[in-house]
Every structure is written in structure tokens, then in C-alpha cells.
Amino acid sequence: MSLLVILLVLMVIGAVIAIETTNLLSSIVCVGAIGFLLSIAFLFLGAPDIAITQLVVEILALVILIRATISRDLTSVSGDREFFGLTITVAVVLVIAVIGVNMFAGFPAFGTPVMDRIVEAHGVPGPPSATYLRHGLERTGAANIVTAVLLDFRAYDTLGEATVLFCSILGALAILRSRARKRADAAETESESG
Amino acid sequence: MIYALCFVLIVVGLYGVVVKKNVVKIVISLAIMEYGINLLLILIAYRRGGIPPILDETMNVADFARQAVDPLPQALVLTSIVISLGVLALLVALCIRLYERYGTFDITEMRRLKG
Amino acid sequence: MNEPLASQGMSLIVKTVTHWVKVFILVFGMYIVLNGHLTPGGGFAGGVVVACAFILLELANGQTRTSQTVKVGVAAELDSAGALLFLGVALVGMRAAGAFFKNFVPTPEAAWFKLFSAGVIPICNIGIGLKVGMSLFLVFVLLSALHVAVRNGDRKMIRRRKE
């Protein structure tokens, strides 16, 4: 458990560095470091599926961020916004932080999942995770219960996720493609006239 | 205690989104917030001394159901991680578009140059 | 150098190592996708690894040479094909077994823990893997097609548009 606390403290330190440093490359590298630490933390929390996915998604996010932003000019914009707005927003963020920390300190003990606390009785339905674990293999035939939940018990959510991914990539392509076409046209007209 | 640390991570990301001027820094802070939220969901699902929810041929199903960690938040977090990648791609495309329109990454400059 | 930075590729060492290693990365990605119902992984992680293989190819060889071998149109078609495969399997489930997304291929107990088990789940994994991989590769190609090395000429273009 102390290992998790060490990882979390390192993540918070990395997050503060990523936000405060003025060099953009350093902050992107710090975000990469936070992602790797998170993947290790997922491994210790018993979620190897999530650890693999977080690792590769992290790498791809780093590549996209660096390729898109680093070699452009003006990457060392420093400083924060004007003073009055800054104090109001910092005050609001601090209030949220204090309320949240109190709320989370009062959570049930770390290490007892929800399905242990709800007991199936007359009139009270049992937790769905217990059903998935007990009957997952015989109802779906998949040994990986997380995949069985994603693609058989809750396949509708996966359809929603595929749609969201499709639409966001479509939006990104629509934004980038019109610029590419205009740039090609501008280059052609310049080469014809010049 | 661990939940509180995870919430501190989320609040650090929130601070970055709200306060910073560089639009790429805002995108980075949003990514940090998403990491914090995913970590919180997996922390809720943890069982002390638990095993991952993947069956083996040598395991008894009843023992497995008593020992494994919760698989449902893991499915949710898998969805969330992949969606955050798609949203990051869209935001970075927007940043590039903003840069080519206004010539800078600074949002206070963009407010001045609007139109 | 007048051509943008993205089309130059990297040094000879990177090109040679990529030439050897790209097949292994692709096969590893496909392994993760196909064994999604037995080991950790699944369609999403495997799809992102496949996208990483193609992105490595593009980073090492530069954009002009890669756009001749791996075409953007084909990637877009495969992307839509993956999404349609996933949706088609769901609709066939509705037709064949009565409920949307119902697993219409039952798995007998003898087939547990084998590769060809779990009914519709491997097919869904393949569809999702195709879709995620090709989408992310497309986004990367278009991001690097606009990779601008800022010179004075470009600044003038921006100023001229404001007047």
C-alpha cells in the first residue's frame, strides 16, 4: 500500500511540474512520466487490461502532442492571466479542493469493493459485478471477464464508445483537411504567380 | 488518504485548465485531470489481496468470485481512456487551427485579435 | 530545405531498424486483438498498437515515401469497414436471436479457454481493432501533413488575412 502512496505522490509532483514549467517540451515529457507511473499503479491495483491500454494510449498521446506543437514558434508563452481573475479562480479551486478532500477522506475503507458491501436479499438485488464474476464464463465463454463485460454484458456502452471515437476523429479530420486543401491551393497560386 | 491524494491530482489539473494562458498547457492539464479520474475509478474497485479478473484453467469459479477485484469499473475506465485519446486528437487539431489563424498559442492574444 | 520537416524521415539506423521490426509490432498488435477474450488486452489496446506500427513507419521514412505505400484512402475505408462490422454483428444478433447485441454463437464447455470460443466476441474485437487503429493512423497522417516550419513567409500569410 505504501508503494501506491509513493506512486501517487510522484504523480502529484509530476503534475505540478508539468503545469508550472515554462518550456513546453518539459511539460509534455512530464505528462508522459505521469502516464507511465499511472500504468504501473494500475498493474499494482489488479488491472492488467487497463495497464496495457493506458501505456499504449499514453505513448500515442505523447507522439501526437509533440508532432503537432513542438516545432512551431512561440512555444514558451509564460505567465498566467491578469491578477483579479487569477485570485478569484484560485479561491474557487481551493474551496473545491477542501470540500473534496474532506468528502474523500470519509469514503469507506480502501480495499473493500462495493460488491462486498451489498448483500443479496429479498427485495435487494445483488451487485452486478458478483453475477459477472460467477456466471461470466458459462454465459459468454470468455475467460477475460473484463472483455466479457465490455463486449457481451455491456456491449451497448462499447457501441457508444466506438461512436464517440468515430465522431471525434471525424471532427479532427474535418478541421485538418480543409486547412490542407487551402494550403495546397495557396501554394499552387503562389507558384503560378511568382 | 489514497482517495484524497487522487483528488489532489484532479484539482491540480483543474487549476491548470482554469489559470494557464497557453492553450497547449490547457490541453495538458485536461489530460492530467483525466488520469486522476481514471485512477479514482480503479481505486474504488480494488480488493485487498485481490487477483485480476481473468480466469485460468486451474481456478475454481467460486473461489475466483470471492477473490477477484471488481471488473465493472475496469470496463468503464477502458472506455474512458480510449475516449480521452480521441478527444485529445480533436483538441490538438483545434490548437493547430487556432495557431494558423491567429499566429500564437496565447489565449489572451486571441481574445484581442478576434474577428 | 524547402520541403516541410515531416517528409524527410529520420537517419539510416532508424530506417533499417524499422524495416526489420515493423512486422513484429504488427503481429503483436494482431495477437493482442485476437486473444482479447483469453488474456488482457482486447480490441482497443491491440488497435492502438497496430496504429503505432504504421505511425513508426511514417515517422522513420518520411511522409512522401510512406504515402505511396500506405494510402490514406485505404485506411479510411478500413476504418469504416471496422465500424460497420461491429454494428453488423449487433444487428445480426437482433435478427438471429431476438435481442440487439445478443451473443448468437453459443460456446460449449469443451471450447472454454480456446482461441475459437466466446461466440461473437472475437469478431467484435477485430472490428474494433481495425477501427481504432486506422482512425488514429489517419489523424496522425493529417497532423503531420500540416507540419509547418515557421518562416517569415508564413507569418506574412497570416497578417495578410487579417487586413
Query: Can you identify the CATH class of chain B?
Result: Mainly Alpha
Q: What is the average per-residue confidence, as pLDDT of chain C, rounded to a whole number?
A: 79
Task: Kindly report the CATH topology of chain B.
Answer: Helix Hairpins
> Based on DSSP secondary structure assignment, what is the total number of beta strands of chain C?
0
Please work out how many helical segments of chain B DSSP would assign: 5
Compute the CA-based radius of gyration of chain B: 20 Å
Q: Which structural class do the helices and strands of chain C define? A: mainly alpha
Elements of chain C, N to C (H/E): HHHHHH
Number of helices of chain C: 6
Number of domains of chain B: 1
Distance between the amino and carboxyl termini of chain B: 49 Å
- What spatial form of chain B do the alpha-carbon principal axes imply? elongated
Average pLDDT level of chain B? 86
What is the number of independent domains of chain C? Answer: 1
Largest sheet of chain C, if any?
none
Q: How large, in whole angstroms, is the Cα Rg of chain C?
A: 21 Å
Unreliable stretches covering 5 or more consecutive residues of chain B: none
Look at the helices and sheets of chain B and give the structural class.
Answer: mainly alpha
- Bin the helical content of chain C: 55-70%
Describe this entry's structure for a reader.
- The complex is a heterotrimer of chains A (194), B (115) and C (163).
- Chain A is mainly alpha-helical and 194 residues long.
- Chain A has two domains: 72 residues, no CATH class; 66 residues, no CATH class.
- Helix content of chain A is 77%, strand content 0%.
- In chain A, helix 1 packs antiparallel against helix 2 and helix 2 packs antiparallel against helix 3.
- Chain A starts with a helix and ends with a helix.
- The mean pLDDT of chain A is 82.
- In chain B, helix 1 packs antiparallel against helix 2 and helix 2 runs antiparallel to helix 4.
- Chain B is elongated and about 65 Å long.
- The N and C termini of chain B lie far apart (49 Å).
- Chain C has 163 residues and is mostly helical.
- Chain C is built from six helices and no strands.
- In chain C, helix 1 runs antiparallel to helix 2.
- The longest helix of chain C is centred in the middle third of the chain and has 26 residues.
- Chains A and C meet through helix 3, helix 6, helix 7 and helix 8 of A and helix 2, helix 4 and helix 5 of C.
